[in-house]
Design a protein that fits this description.
Length: 465
Amino acid sequence: MPNPIAPSLFADPRVAQAKELLRAALADHQKQITGIRPPDPERKIAYEEMLQHFGMARGGPLFFPYLGSGLGKGALVELADGSVKYDMISGIGVHYFGHSHPMLLDAGVDAAIRDTVMQGNLQQNVESVPLAKTLVEMANRAGEAARIAHCFLTTSGAMANENALKIAFQKHQPASRVLAFSHGFAGRSMALSQITDKAAYRVGLPKVLDVDYVPFYNADQPEHSTAAAVNRIKEHLQRYPKQHACMWMELIQGEGGFYAGTREFFLPIIELLKENGVAVWFDEIQTFARTSQPFAFQHFGLDAHVDLLTVGKITQVCATLFTDAYIPKPGLVSQTFTASTSAILAAQAILDVLKSGGFFGESGRIMQVRQRVMSHLDRIRGEHPEWLKGPFGAGAMIAFTPFDGSEATAKKLLTDLFDAGVVAFVCGANPARLRFLPPVGVVTDGDIDAALGILERALAAHAGR
Ligand SMILES: Cc1ncc(COP(=O)(O)O)c(C=O)c1O
């Protein structure tokens, strides 16, 4: 039988040489990126015009005046106006290995010599096989009782969640309702706009799904909040017997404000769901690789209970993972696109590095990054209690409430911070918080110190000092 020819192309020494050459070119140009830098005044008008045109094309302005140039170095990113900033939000948790990482350049070159830009469910290349396997392996850590056996790859977090939702409904038909924590964010599709507990994100949309909300953990009243959540679920289950297919859960709320639950909070809820045959679905699209373990459900020791699991962002290729009991019937889930070839190869490279050591555990890099950011915020709050409340969150998901907690204050501070050279983002409402999702794979202690120094000066300026 003839062997496939492709592996010999991928192993061709000229490909390795090309990568070396490209890495050298990248490194040469990256040398000019040494720290933050203000915009080039001569580019100001052209840049603003570009932003305006793009805003018009997309039907509304961008949140930040951010258009990347296409180059960066670690946590530093260059914008098309010539400025260089610390990226402490990583595309809302996507660019875990920062900007212009040589590992991802290699993945991109490997993708470029493959036959297609995109891959799909009808015609997929071999790389999806190890990728799905790696995600399943990471969801089943040794010595724990997770039963995740399958992984369906897809293009976005929303699509991964849509697939999980459909899988849960098909399994539990004719159940038609979903339980969800209040103030969660599940994505932007019609159905997920109903699970997402934010009125502004569903203005004008018809209701396509019945969602029953459950209050999330309140760190100020741990026992009370557990009882409140359990009682609310009981009420919903009594009001609509056998009508709930699943409970969608963020274990650490992302867009909702970086509120983290606890094992003691989640366990009684999960037990109740199991007793009533309701699927337990963890949305780990924002939490993956942000706590002491690959998945937050592992961080909270909830391995034995997961039925459905969704992942995205850092993984580049998004996915719905599930146990044997939730295998969908043929025809339920599919899509033209699985992902781009470059995303599939980048995803594998990222997961391999994450698995290779140093990131997880109580003293792994993720928790080190947390400690460093937290220590700055704790110190600032200690010295100026009126400047911020918190810090909040878990692992490398860190937020604080600036000043009065109003949306206007958070947005103003965010803009000031952006202009001063740090990209962060908001989360939560009443109070509005400022959040960081640092690029853990590349951010250095020096980067953190510099970025938090800029934050301290922005807070001081806001306080009028
Ligand atoms: C918890 C959670 N679920 C789902 C999504 C939706 O993912 P995407 O924006 O890739 O569709 C997000 C995105 O922020 C998220 O944070």
